[in-house]
Amino acid sequence: MASTSQPLRGKRACKKIFWAVFPHACFILSLVIYAFLGALMFSHIEGNRKVNLSEEYRKFLQNLWYISRNLSDNMTENEEIFKEKIHALLSAAERDWFVNPKDIWTFFGSLFFCCTVFTTVGYGNTYPVTRIGKYLCMLYALFGIPLMFLVLTDMGDILATVLSKSYNEFRKLQSKILTSKLCSVFMCNKGDELKSRAQSKAIINEPLTIMEVLKSQPGVKRKPIKYRNAEIFEMLIARENEDKKPSRNKSIERWSSCPELARGKTMSRVIENFDKIGKQLEKLDVPIVLMVLVIFVYISCAAAILPNWETRLDFQEAFYFCFITLTTIGFGDTQLEHPKFFLFFSLYIIIGMEIVFIAFKLGQDRLIGLYKKVISFCGEKKMPSKKVYPK
């Protein structure tokens, strides 16, 4: 029986772990599939579009040729006028005139664009041009942004649990070290004396009887206990009630023979896992300074790695770029030469956005607490003092 029960316990443990991890894996997998489908869609629509050179493009070329022809040999006289004309001409130019769509809207380029859409970063260096692409971009963001926030909330619960447990363990370890030091200096000797006195008093005040001493000895034979008929009847009823309860082995046999009976409990547990999303973030109580330190270290690690393939970026520029990305500001002033490599960095972006999200949540809670204190303080100041009239 022991050999057969161990595999059953192992299978049940594996299934519990699977159904516990299932909601988190479901969210992440759905986001990955959504990003890949969007990349296929935008690469097909925007990458295969035809570039029609309009009249504005021809006028741009004519004006550029006219400015270059009228430029005199003496550059110092017409330098300022030449700069103003060129600046005005280039500001009216469109980027689509000089770029091949297939070079931008590759699969990885489209995937990078989809990630910037549903993460709400939106660098602005890649955007749809066709009317169908713009409509599909709005529809894609309408469903992708809530899905991304759901993933952030779900993964934020895991990070919040890890942070809270590690912080609590650190506090417990710190308190143990402090108490051990204080005990070694002040309290240990006195505590031992008090314990010994209490034990001696207990032994003196509560002596054991001879029957209790004999019962505690293993060699002493005990007489069989005589029961009355009423007691025997009560024991039989209790044993019958215990037999009516489903035992553990019976439940295993019923579950293995007919899995549909246990499927309801499994489904209810999965639904409970879905209902618990976001609860750990509400319970998180970690100092905001610790979260700021975690964000600083997290961004610094990426800023030290990113210049290895983005040679135009140094540590400060990479730190700025990572901060703008994780906070979903996304100015687009810093453009990447190799967004394909940065896509493999997407896990870093998602985890970093979750850390920033947790920090914002903690900051929001602190601000609400501060507002409550200020309002209660102002309310106490404005409360009129009660006047005591003489009788």
From TrEMBL:
Residues 102-159, 294-364 form the Potassium channel domain. Its main location: membrane. It holds the Pfam family Ion_trans_2. It is a multi-pass membrane protein. Gene3D superfamilies: 1.10.287.70. GO terms for molecular function: outward rectifier potassium channel activity; potassium ion leak channel activity. The chain crosses the membrane at residues 21-45, 104-123, 135-153, 286-306, 318-336, 342-363. One of its GO terms (cellular component) is plasma membrane. One of its GO terms (biological process) is stabilization of membrane potential. InterPro entries: 2pore_dom_K_chnl (IPR003280), K_chnl_dom (IPR013099). Keywords: Ion channel, Ion transport, Membrane, Potassium, Transmembrane, Transmembrane helix, Transport. It is found in: Membrane. Belongs to the two pore domain potassium channel (TC 1.A.1.8) family. This is KCNKI protein.
